Amino acid sequence: MKIICIGRNYVNHAKELGNAIPSEPLFFLKPDTAIQPKGHPFFIPHFSDDIHYEVELVVRINKTGKHIEQQFANKYYSQIGLGIDFTARDVQQECKAKGLPWEKAKGFDGSAQISRTFIDKSDLELDNITFSLQKNNEQVQIGNSKDMCFNFDAIIAHISKFYTLKIGDLIYTGTPEGVGPVKAGDQLKGFIGEQEMFKVIVK
Ligand code: ZN
Fold first, then answer.
1. CA of 57 to the centre of ligand 1 (A)
2. 87 CA to centre of ligand 1 in angstroms
3. Span from the CA of 63 to the centroid of ligand 1 (angstroms)
4. pLDDT one-digit tens code per residue, 5-18
5. Domain spans in the chain, listed from the N-terminal domain onward
6. Fold held by 3-201
7. How confident is the model at residue 71 (pLDDT cuts 50, 70, 90)?
8. How far is the centre of ligand 1, averaged over its atoms, from the C-alpha of 175 (Å)?
9. Which alpha helices (H) appear in the chain, and where do they start and end?
10. Which of 14, 88, 7 is nearest to 47 (CA)?
11. pTM, whole model, 2 decimals?
12. pLDDT averaged over the chain?
């Protein structure tokens, strides 16, 4: 199983980090060990002083495919979940400044929070999914899939040019604006619409 993450997929988030809007989906990987075990707290890793949350809609692949055409991409997933792409922002900025890969800032253990429930896409309007994140019961991020630069199908078509997608692969589809830091004791709750998808304590 692999975890693929899309970067800069929401214009306002790309702007808040001072990044250009990509002309094609920008993606990177996390290892499967990044998945946060169910119900576990998120432990701030020792190598960072600036861990950020990034709430993201997550597509789970349910059919193997390569070179998937965009018009058929919707046959390769049936459910949408919610996750956090935890990011060591200080480490990432250092890597970016040196022109180095971001993996150590993005792929560390526990960096992929994922909801245990997924919602059938037939119960959602795919181009109008509202999702949000609360920190200590205050909303810190809210987004809508209509604001994605590249929608689910475009992302799948693009990634599958390079990588075979397999059943169970997860695609984190990018975060809207409002990313920010966490500290020990924070509680994060993610929502799709009004439905609570996950809750995680930071330690
Ligand atoms: Zn992200």
1. 10
2. 8
3. 24
4. 999 999 888 788 88
5. 3-201
6. Fumarylacetoacetate hydrolase; domain 2 (3.90.850)
7. very high
8. 5
9. 11-16, 89-98, 103-106, 152-159
10. 88
11. 0.96
12. 96
